[in-house]
Design a protein that fits this description.
The complex is a heterodimer.
Chain A lengths: L4 E5 L3 H10 L6 E5 L2 H10 L4 E4 L8 H11 L4 E6 L4 H11 L3 E4 L4 H19 L3 H7 L2
Parallel strand pairs in A: 1-2, 1-3, 3-4, 4-5
Helix pairs in contact in A: 2-3, 3-4
Chain B lengths: L3 E6 L3 H10 L5 E6 L2 H10 L4 E4 L8 H11 L4 E6 L4 H11 L3 E4 L4 H20 L5
Parallel strand pairs in B: 1-2, 1-3, 3-4, 4-5
Amino acid sequence: MEKKTILFVDDEINILNSLRRGLMDEPYVTLFAESGKKALEILENREVHIIVTDMKMPEMSGLELLKIVREKYPHIVRIVLSGYTQIDNLLTAINQGEIYKYITKPWQMEEEFKPAIRQAVVYYDFRNRHNTIVTQGKE
Amino acid sequence: MEPKTVLFVDDDEFVLKSLRRGLTDEPYNTLFTNSGGEALEILKRTKVNVIVTDMKMPEMLGLELLKVVKDRYPDIIRIVLSGYTQVSTLLTAINQGEIFKYITKPWKLEETFKPAIREALEYYDMMAGAPAK
């Protein structure tokens, strides 16, 4: 099976570094972006299967990013990694961002985070099993 | 295209009646049941495209039902309709129930509820690889 690519988006460099270190041995390619804008640039140039984004970021919020990704790249599985746990944020992320998972900070790498990403990889394949049609489906 | 079927699960009869009344003119079949156990019986003999369940029900909880449905019928799009809005409930619903939407009670039929069901049906088609309209 083709190796999957996961894009992580967070304005906090420490978070990205910690993810980079923690996921080094995982069986997928990892990419990192410090802003929604940079994430979109990466998406234009690289094939990404899963995106994991923070919610609260300056300029482009995680929700804005999720909505754009949903629209332009509907095949990408969307996950939130956020310290932001208010009911309203959660509901908006679920209902408008149509996310697959919502992981809260601080996260538990082994018990929670890694399994979530692996499940997302499996889900990606399940969801895109009719790949040609999925990409044609929206315009 | 064959008409789609949406199954509603809630232990509150009033909620089911209100949904039945509110959705009579919608372009899909509706089924109603007041327990998770019965919902699973219905799923054994009827093709359902979208399931909308309450979270807090006696005997089988909404979350349990969602997990069983996810496991046995992964194609069915899962939605929660619940008055239960605690962060932990929401997180479990999304992370373990892998739901498509979480609608809170009291719901707004025209602005929130009907569009959510329609989106879920469209999403079903996309997932199932149905030809684009």
